[in-house]
Amino acid sequence: MSSPCRVRAERLLALLLAAAVLAGCEREKRHIGPSGPEAAPVIQTTPFVPGGAQPLPKDPRAEFYENNAFEVAQGARLFRWYNCSGCHSNGGGGMGPALIDDQWIYGSEIEQIYGTIQQGRPNGMPSFRDKATEEQIWQLAAYVRSLAGKNSQVASSRSDAMAGIPPRNQASPADAGKETPPKRLR
Amino acid sequence: MSQSALHPAADQATRLLGLWDLMLWVCAGMYVLVIAFLAWAIWRRRRAAYLIEPEVMVSDPGLERALGGWAVLIVVGLIVLTTASFLTDRALATPGERPLKIKVTGQQWWWRVEYQDGPVERWVETANEIRLPLGRPAEIELASDDVIHSFWIPNLAGKTDLIPGRTNRMAITPRRAGRFRGQCAEFCGFQHAHMALDVTVEPEAAFEAWRARQLAPAAAPADPQRAYGQQVFQAKACAMCHAIAGTQAGSRNGPDLTHVASRRTLAAGALPYSKGALAGWIANPQALKPGTNMPAVRLSADEQAALVAYLDGLK
Ligand SMILES: [Cu+2]
């Protein structure tokens, strides 16, 4: 026998599920065109700034690329096309450092990763300023963050690459959106 | 340019058209019979009602014979169609003599075409166009780099899917010279509709002349503007995705551009080739083929003009 309380709980659950499904619509929203939202680039290279720790300036474009599964998937394709995997493997690291762990030489904010890819870094990371469009660098940066589980809510559930987090369809709902998920695959 | 399965120009398409005709006539005959029976049944019922005959007719030898004949007709019809379909399938699967080996790889949203015929140094790569020598069977190997596509040149043969991780094969023996249009026949994303193939069937001598031209590496640019264009190509993102034989650009993410100006279309049939179309494409591919995997690369007016002059010279 179902009590009124239980019925209410079920209704609430159905409502929550519907909300979750609707929220999913935005997850992969695509824009098609020459590039994403334009704004003057605000790029902070490293967290080492004179005068101690200061909050990093936020780039207004970052969020658009960061929270969109389509943009992250484009980044995954470019990671292969531009041969990032030649030096970083599928994220696990080789001649270049691992990208799926939580150790960052040049910072883990998306603006910092953008800077790393765009400008290159002295110990062997080439600059992609002329070799990739701005939009592509954002996509790559968003993908690199998803490898490390920094934006796990848009990470691909189907991927041949290594990742620091369980695939989305195996993660428990409670983990979604967490910076460092408790369960690691490795 | 023709795109029609009803005007076959190769053995395979002729076979398929024969099967199609047989099916059409067998099914049309059966359809006419069914309708005739139906009409007859309606007419008969009216007559029975007119006579006001309450008891049900127990036996009707004429109807029983007709139904028996009908069952026989269905069985025979199905046997004829099954046998014909089996024979056609077998004929399609039989490779011809001295086949020309071509590998076609589908990618979102264009075709990589590699002639893997003879020794490796004679292999040729192009994109979105296929040339076939008249009368010589071609053995086409089909692969995909991303999602499922389907290879279909209606005038020459039926469809065959390109499936990631699997190689399919098909044969085409062209019998009539001409230009035909091929098209991806499996929905594969945004620009599926603009994923066409420019197919030419020509006498073997003309084909060999074309192949010899394609085999040559890109000619070194003679004038300074084109030389600058080549530098731009190598310094900018273009070289990350495209190959031009005879230069340092060797990436295979996008179409091979070694002889891009010798093609009749750009971007898998999205637009006919011209210098203007080329300039427009490079300036903003997303405007001409929204969603395509080629980005708009930021270039100065000089760089853009030099690049177009350089590529337009790659005949
Ligand atoms: Cu398609």
Low-confidence stretches of chain B: none
Taking all Cα atoms into account, the compactness measure Rg of chain A is 19 Å
User: What is the assembly state of the chains in this entry?
Assistant: heterodimer
Q: Which radius of gyration of chain B do the C-alpha atoms yield?
A: 28 Å
State the major sheet of chain B: 5 strands, mixed
Distance between the termini of chain A: 45 Å
Query: Could you estimate the helical fraction of the residues of chain A in percent?
Result: 25-40%
The proportion of strand residues of chain B reads 15-25%
The percent of residues in helical segments of chain B reads 40-55%
Q: SSE order of chain A in H/E notation?
A: HHHHHH
Average pLDDT of chain A, to the nearest integer? Answer: 75
Beta-strand content of chain A: under 5%
Chain-averaged pLDDT of chain B: 92
Number of helices of chain A: 6
> Which of globular, elongated, flat, extended, rod-shaped describes the shape of chain A?
elongated
Give me the secondary-structure category of chain A.
mainly alpha
Task: Catalogue the ligands.
Answer: copper (II) ion
